[in-house]
Write a sequence for this structure.
């Protein structure tokens, strides 16, 4: 078994443990490369099927191509697709940059808040109806107790300390100082009522591993990651106002891999195009404690 | 040296990634050693070093390499590592995940979590402070976790003027300790992480040291020997059937812990002893496979559809098989907030098994910081290492950790939390068990009146018994039980149908989901004992009962009788069943068969003088 085989086997093992242990399980799918690899690994784990519902938090500031891509594969792979959003903030224009909010406040409202309340079932969920191909608003859903997330340990400092199975309390808080022990692939699959667990099957993957796996498995990936002739491409996908493309002429998966291995990005952090990380010395950590993924 | 990361991917080839944990007493400089290793090998993302330096200048505090790792706010504020952080690092030889484990006693469970992932350990000792409590405790725990590849960094040599004498005295003391816990370090390295001495190259300031630098030692650690050569162990994680998606495959899913298995191999599942043969190896987006090996998460289809539940261990019939038992002698490390005590129900997770477990005996408790033992302790406190005997609710399949580490280790859950890690030292053959002991105690203390069972039997014209109707869900057991009660009642018998069991023992109550099915079975057994003691015939139904559960109910009902009637498919060996009823299409006939049996066995007394 090579390195990709090893981390693939571990991710599949984690996904199956999650599916075995949580009755109300959901997977977050941002349509970015990491969570799309996670979705692919789910098909691997369950022999072609995706028995876990997928949730996408739509901030309404995503690149339109992302929504098209999401719905195309939701239909093709018969995904149980759930969309959540912060209707109030969007209606009241409490956003960035067209509202009064800073980047971090906007992230908190459109992502963290929307996610928290959609997961808990307090806010409506828009569920894809495969017979009509349309999303149907549903109220009063059950809270999800297991949430699968595509975070990787190499992304930034706070993620390097995550567990594969990481508990969150009633307020969605992450108690970094008091994380459960995790040894010999025995995870925290027992949880008190009212709490939930975040599950991180991709913790051991690096950005390069992700791309190598996409190449090996021939996973259909959104083409925003590639240069279309103007010398720019996205390295990390987010909302339009806060994510800038990077200068790069990588036009396909092989060229992205080459760039990461020995080219211009071999030594530059992936999230360097994400502005919200820079606002506060520990911006992402603050967001994560508050429920950001 | 600075750009060594660039050539890595060509160089590493098949060598593979390696996990290394860095541990030691608080403040002895673990994070600094790693920070230095990352910085000096050019493994940091561009700008990271500068950003941390700028941040330090902005907050007017001196820069430390540890800040590169201690990413979380609490840690920077307190200057200690709280949780194990992982960082990726590449040498010219291979890729690494370096695990920075905290040294503070409060965070020992985090240290364990970090170390349990590692294949080798780097122990850091402060040259000025010398060997401290957690230097020893961590050394012991590494040994218990099965990590035998260890190197020791004697750090902060700059604070002791690079003194060879100090280094040698620490080496002598600590080597002696490690020897006692069965660890022989590959190297002791005098370093100053802050100054970069002996980290990636040998330092002029310690010309007396002729050994290798930290980087060379780390590059010299050997990969774990392959697990393919051991006998097959495959812990069944789940049985999938995605019928609703139009897929009729029944797939036994899990990960191969050790060994190999081929299409056509005959396999046995433990503890159930069920046998079958591998027909296909299943996968998605994979070519057809005929062989699966250790490490793979995979799935199998079997030629015979044996009844299986998650938690079974699949072995090959032609290889040495795992052990099966309820009493395990183990070594455990307790991390729970509450001590581990006897008579309290815990949960054991071993492989894919999840099962209630009790502490039966504390053999010795060890203080890992100085290796002193205490043989009189009756409970296991936080941070204790204890040799003890555990009893599981039902037999479990396992190996001794010295034979197969992967299936010889486990964790214990207390109140939703992983409270302990442990390794299996031995099996214990016990003539007794918790249920039996409880019943003996009960019978001893029972205050009996002058009314004997014979007097009751004469009065009620019957001998009392529990009539236990078993079988799969939906077999019509409850309807049968009620009709049987009515029939017996109308013919003058003293009979009662206990309808409680079925709803409480429904599908959600299985042990795997943390349900307490065994607790309801225990209550059922106790209630049954009362009814049968009072001279009644008690009828009840339980779905999907297994043999161990049946034995438990029967034991609890002792010394009174129990008759087992199975409806439909049976999970029991024949000897366990007193009457098999194929189906209930003719219920009246089934009732007559049961009555005939009860008459024949003199529970229903037909005549008396």
């Amino acid at each position: 078994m090579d390195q990709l085989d090893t981390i693939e086997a571990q991710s599949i093992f984690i996904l199956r443990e999650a599916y075995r242990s949580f009755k109300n399980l959901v997977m977050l799918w941002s349509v970015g490369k990491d969570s799309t690899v996670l979705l692919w690994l789910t098909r691997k784990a369950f022999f072609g099927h995706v028995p876990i519902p997928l949730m996408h938090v739509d901030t309404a500031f995503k690149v339109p191509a992302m929504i098209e891509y999401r719905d195309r594969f939701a239909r093709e792979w018969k995904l149980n697709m759930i969309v959540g959003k912060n209707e109030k903030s969007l209606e009241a224009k409490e956003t960035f940059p067209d509202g009064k909010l800073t980047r971090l406040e906007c992230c908190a409202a459109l992502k963290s808040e929307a996610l928290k309340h959609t997961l808990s079932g307090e806010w409506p969920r828009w569920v894809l109806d495969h017979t009509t191909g349309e999303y149907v608003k549903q109220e009063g859903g059950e809270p999800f107790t297991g949430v699968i997330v595509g975070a990787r340990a190499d992304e930034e400092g706070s993620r390097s300390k995550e567990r594969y199975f990481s508990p969150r309390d009633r307020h969605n808080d992450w108690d970094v100082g008091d994380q459960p022990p995790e040894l010999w692939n025995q995870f925290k699959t027992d949880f008190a009522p009212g709490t939930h667990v975040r599950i991180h099957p991709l913790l051991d993957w690096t950005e390069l591993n992700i791309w190598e796996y996409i190449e090996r498995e021939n996973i259909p990936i959104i083409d925003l990651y590639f240069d279309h002739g103007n010398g720019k491409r996205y390295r990390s996908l987010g909302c339009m106002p806060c994510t800038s493309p990077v200068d790069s002429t990588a036009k396909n998966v092989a060229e992205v891999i080459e760039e990461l291995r020995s080219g211009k990005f071999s030594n530059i952090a992936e999230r360097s195009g994400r502005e919200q990380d820079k606002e506060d010395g520990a911006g992402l950590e603050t967001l994560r404690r508050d429920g950001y993924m | 040296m600075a750009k060594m990361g660039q050539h890595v991917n060509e160089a590493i080839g098949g060598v593979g990634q390696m996990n290394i944990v860095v541990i030691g007493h608080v403040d002895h400089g673990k994070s600094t050693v790693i920070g230095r290793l990352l910085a000096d090998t050019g493994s940091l993302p561009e700008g990271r070093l500068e950003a941390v330096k700028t941040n330090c200048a902005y907050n007017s505090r001196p820069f430390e390499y540890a800040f590169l790792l201690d990413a979380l706010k609490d840690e920077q504020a307190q200057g200690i590592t709280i949780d194990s952080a992982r960082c990726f690092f590449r040498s010219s030889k291979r890729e690494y995940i370096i695990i920075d484990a905290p040294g503070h006693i409060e965070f020992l469970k985090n240290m364990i979590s970090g170390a349990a992932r590692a294949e080798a350990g780097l122990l850091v000792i402060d040259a000025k402070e010398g060997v401290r409590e957690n230097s020893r405790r961590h050394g012991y725990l590494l040994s218990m976790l099965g990590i035998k590849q260890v190197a020791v960094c004697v750090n902060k040599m700059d604070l002791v003027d690079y003194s060879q004498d100090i280094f040698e005295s620490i080496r002598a003391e600590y080597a002696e300790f490690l020897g006692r816990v069965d660890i022989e370090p590959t190297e002791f390295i005098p370093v100053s992480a802050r100054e970069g001495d002996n980290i990636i190259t040998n330092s002029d300031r310690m010309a007396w040291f002729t050994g290798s630098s930290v980087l060379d030692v780390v590059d010299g650690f050997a990969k774990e020997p392959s697990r393919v050569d051991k006998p097959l162990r495959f812990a069944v994680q789940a049985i999938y059937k995605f019928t609703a998606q139009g897929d009729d495959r029944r797939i036994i899913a899990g990960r191969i812990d050790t060994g190999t298995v081929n299409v056509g191999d005959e396999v046995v599942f433990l503890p159930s002893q069920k046998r079958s043969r591998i027909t296909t190896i299943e996968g998605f987006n994979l070519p057809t496979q005929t062989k699966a090996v250790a490490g793979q998460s995979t799935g199998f289809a079997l030629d015979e559809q044996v009844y299986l539940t998650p938690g079974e261990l699949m072995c090959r019939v032609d290889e040495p098989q795992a052990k099966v038992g309820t009493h395990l002698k183990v070594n455990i490390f307790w991390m729970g907030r509450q001590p581990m005590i006897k008579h309290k129900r815990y949960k054991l997770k071993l492989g894919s098994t999840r099962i209630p477990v009790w502490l039966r005996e504390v053999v010795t408790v060890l203080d890992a910081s100085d290796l002193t033992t205490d043989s009189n302790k009756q409970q296991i406190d936080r941070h204790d290492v204890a040799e003890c005997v555990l009893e599981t609710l039902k037999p479990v399949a396992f190996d001794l950790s010295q034979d197969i580490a992967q299936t010889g280790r486990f964790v214990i859950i207390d109140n939703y939390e992983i409270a302990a890690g442990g390794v299996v030292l031995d099996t214990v053959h016990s003539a007794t068990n918790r249920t039996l002991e409880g019943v003996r105690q009960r019978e001893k203390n029972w205050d009996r009146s002058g009314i004997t069972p014979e007097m009751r039997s004469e009065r009620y014209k019957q001998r009392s018994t529990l009539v236990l109707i078993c079988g799969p869900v939906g077999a019509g057991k409850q309807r049968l039980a009620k009709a049987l009660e009515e029939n017996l009642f109308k013919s003058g018998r003293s009979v009662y149908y206990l309808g409680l069991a079925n709803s409480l023992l429904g599908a959600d109550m299985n042990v795997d989901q943390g349900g307490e099915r065994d607790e309801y079975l225990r209550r059922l057994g106790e209630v049954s004992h009362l009814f049968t003691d009072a001279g009644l015939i008690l009828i009840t139904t339980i779905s999907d009962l297994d043999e161990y559960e049946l034995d438990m109910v029967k034991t609890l009902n002792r010394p009174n009788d129990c008759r087992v009637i199975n409806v439909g498919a049976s999970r029991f060996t024949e000897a366990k069943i007193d009457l098999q009823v194929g189906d209930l299409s003719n219920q009246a006939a089934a009732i007559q068969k049961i009555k005939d049996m009860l008459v024949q066995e003199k529970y229903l007394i037909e005549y008396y003088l």
